[in-house]
């Protein structure tokens, strides 16, 4: 029997990821330039589209160049949080899915 592969008619992100990207786009429009601490998605086309509107991926707190940083769904550890606050960045942390805030409450993570 031959393997049959069908592509779904509509593909895309789950509602939580879509919400996170929409929020990031809004912050970028309002502030002009914003950085994310790590990539918010693993889709290179989306990351390029975000880069085109002023979103830059910073790999560490020391790599942050703008005054606004967005922390992704999983949050950051306490030392990173302290470092961000010490540098007086305007920080926004969002959970991509409203459901995951109750499902992923890791200790020591600031949301």
Q: Topology of this protein?
A:
Blueprint: H1 15-31, E1 34-37, H2 44-52, E2 55-58, E3 68-71, H3 78-86, E4 90-93, H4 100-103
Parallel strand pairs: 1-2, 1-3, 3-4
Explain how this protein is built:
The protein is α/β, with parallel strands linked by helices. It has a single domain (15-103), classed as Rossmann fold (3-Layer(aba) Sandwich). The protein is built from four helices and four strands; from the N terminus they run αβαββαβα. Strands 2-1-3-4 form a four-stranded parallel sheet. The longest helix is centred in the N-terminal third of the chain and has 17 residues, at 15-31. The relative contact order is 0.18. Residues 95-111 have low confidence and may be disordered.
What keywords describe this structure?
4 strands, 111 residues, alpha/beta, single chain, disordered C terminus, 4 helices
